[in-house]
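USER:
I wish I could look at a protein chain and see how it folds. I am handing you a single protein, as its sequence and its fold in token form. As I understand it, each token names a local backbone shape. I hope you can help me see how the letters and the tokens relate. The protein I mean follows directly.
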Amino acid sequence: MDIQAKRNVLRSFTYGMYAVTAQHENRNGVFLANWLSQCSFEPPMLMLAVERDATTLALLRASGFFAVHVLVSGQREFAGMLGKSARTNPRKLDAARWQPSALTQNPILQDTLGYVECRVTDETPAGDSVVVVGEIIAAELFSAELAPLTMQETGFKHFG
């Protein structure tokens, strides 16, 4: 395989930038995600790739719930901070305005386009990640007028 061609093609895929939160026993977690897609209309479901060593993955598994927030165009710095490891930046949520969800207690980030909350229904190993499938159980749109943040806008790149 031509490694450079593979990188170039994978880097041309379009990706949004999402903040994923979870909580369990008063421990909150957040990470930056972009490998995410709706995978069912009925029931409404999405699938999310999470790095196997992500701190928030343990919270997501323990609670059985997570929330996905669509980041706003112009939030590159915020996205970059969320993309740092929780091991080196354990207080990432201190930089965000949030409140606990009435339904699941997940942190709900206020300065986003909106969010969906999901109940975990399945997961499967996928190389260095885990694909988590969740049924959407709640949603809120904060702004229909703003544009979503994209991977292209941030300039972030996968190693491919």
In short: The chain has a mean pLDDT of 92. Helices lie at 3-11, 55-63, 76-82, 151-154. DSSP finds four helices and nine strands in the chain. The two ends are 13 Å apart (CA to CA).
